Amino acid sequence: MAALAFSHEGDSSLSAPTHVRINDCNLHVATVNGSGSQTANATLLRAIFQMGVPVSGKNLFPSNIAGLPTWFTIRVNERGHLARTRTNDVLVAMNPETAADDIAAMGPGTVTVVNAGIPLPELPSDRTVHVVPCGKLVEPIVPDAKLRKLVVNMIYVGVVAHLLGIDAEEIDRALGSQLGRKQKALELNRAAVNAGLEYAREHLPPAPVRIERRSLTDGKILIEGNTAAALGALFGGVTFVSWYPITPSSSLAEALQGYLERYRRDPQTGEATYAILQAEDEIAAIGMVLGASWAGARAMTATSGPGFSLMTEFIGYAYYAEIPAVIWDIQRIGPSTGLPTRTSQGDLLSAAFSSHGDTKHVLLFPASVEDCYQYGMQAFDLAERLQTPVLVMSDLDLGMNVSMAEPFAYPEEPWDRGKVLTDEELDRVKTFERYRDVDGDGIPYRTIPGQRHPAAAYFTRGSGHDEQARYTESSETYARVMDRLARKHETARRLAPGPVIDRAPHAAVGLLSFGSTAWAMDEARERLREDGLETSHLLLRAYPFHPDVRAFLASCERVYVVEQNRDAQMAALLRMDMPDLAPRIRSVLHYDGLPIDARSIVERVLHGEREEVVAR
């Protein structure tokens, strides 16, 4: 093999590289699912974060339980560009099954740490490979062979810490955060880290990419989107949750259960003031949510594509009977089972028009963990204000990966429960008709079951009904009710979150992103600017579209809609909503299951602009 390998005692060529890139690199770790690598990778990520350098982590794991390949990528970028990139600078190869492909994918000037015993492919001389005897180093630390398999990954933590210049004290502090009070486990893992660190100091030169201490993460937190959503739901007043396990939404319900058990209890008796149920399937889960919400609770469920498909009939019932509900769809690759552990934005059209018949639903698009927290609260306000299901369209990349954020603000605004008539208000009104539009906004008034006032009672109907909630099959009445529901959808344009717009002076080209595609957008715009193309940007936050979305499309000659699905679903929604502006809409599509990267956006936008020039 022509590449350099530093794995022998007494190697004298340990000088630092001449050209070093600081706080801008990708670390790619290839291991086996179920081998304990999660703790090792999280320790590295947290240690870099503690050094004050912006960092993100993305986990690519199999849908099977254990034994299959898994990859974890840590991106370090002090300018704050933390989306996925296509290339890596440092590779840790611990999985013999994928090592040949993993190593071969590394480009010029890169560094690979490979566990001894793994066969190496032929490589050009401009790649550096370090063969490290991880198994041999961990043997004296962990005599038990079974336990050794879970600790051996800590060897590469020490090696990488030396190669990248990660502070050993920060590694130790991060390891303590990961293992908490598990003292025996902490000591074993600490010893393995130190063994790897000592070996690397003696045998390996520093890498051409380094981590230097900054203060760019001061006061910030690391959190997953699903955990942030659970916190938001807690502060949003949720008291009922029913769900059925499905990747990648399960961790949202599990995190919420932990928070509810801790904080939603009677201070005097300690009894739970909430209910959280693992239903027998997704149909039962959404049915329970509607029952609880109808009874006055703030109720929600979390699911993903296949589970969402099963909920569609009940979602249509909630739309027509006007029952509030919050549904988190943590999107993954479909159709059918698809790729359960890959990310996607492929549920947009099925969500916007979920159920048979004419329906239009409110969708929220969180683009950050801060959004997940905020929408965890706001979704309940919207659902109760509009008396309809609100669907929060997150995805696996946002939901299950760790992101940096400012600490979340404690909510100060009271909950908005919408048009709920109290007994006192019922005394003042002449009549109460459950499905009557009194204010012209399409939203009727409602009461909560159990109110004592004799006028509060009504039937909730998913069959044909009139303004008094009486059963009818009148064609005229049906059309009248459906027109009112359409007016409610128009009202939602003003109540749902508006877009965030960054206009570039004199820019003819606009970019439109939503959800986790936003992470690559700032970096893409910066690269496009370097290529001579100024762009304006709109971050879409909700459907139905705010009037500012129309104004943005009208102000641009061309708007590239960036989305992670094959069929340009967001572009289709925009064209349906604003057909007169449809000729301005172009698509940038990404649907291989990996999070979109800035380079893909840049290449496709520039290709589109070249085609425009040719067309003229």
Per-chain topology:
Layout (H helix, E strand, L loop, with lengths): L20 E2 L1 E9 L4 H14 L4 E6 L8 E9 L12 E4 L5 H6 L6 E5 L12 E5 L1 H5 L6 H7 L1 H12 L3 H12 L3 H21 L5 E2 L10 E4 H11 L4 E4 L6 H14 L11 E4 L3 H13 L4 E5 L1 H6 L1 H10 L3 E9 L5 E5 L4 H5 L9 E3 L4 H18 L2 E7 H5 L1 E4 L17 H6 L46 H21 L4 E3 L6 E6 L3 H13 L4 E6 L1 E2 L3 H9 L2 E6 L5 H9 L7 E5 L8 H18 L1
Parallel strand pairs: 1-8, 2-5, 5-6, 6-7, 10-11, 10-12, 12-13, 13-16, 15-16, 19-20, 19-22, 22-23
Antiparallel strand pairs: 2-4, 3-4, 9-17, 13-14, 15-21, 18-20
Helix pairs in contact: 1-5, 1-6, 5-7, 6-7, 8-9, 8-14, 18-21
Characterise the protein shown here.
- With 616 residues, the chain is an alpha/beta fold.
- The protein folds into four domains: 190 residues, 3-Layer(aba) Sandwich (Pyruvate-ferredoxin Oxidoreductase, domain 3); 179 residues, 3-Layer(aba) Sandwich (Rossmann fold), CATH 3.40.50; 73 residues, no CATH class; 116 residues, Rossmann fold, CATH 3.40.50.
- The chain contains 21 helices and 23 strands.
- The strands form five sheets. Strands 10, 11, 12, 13, 14, 15, 16 and 21 form an eight-stranded mixed sheet that branches. A six-stranded mixed sheet has the order 3-4-2-5-6-7. It has a five-stranded mixed sheet with strand order 18-20-19-22-23, sandwiched between helices.
- β13 and β14 form a beta hairpin.
- α8 crosses α14.
- The protein is globular.
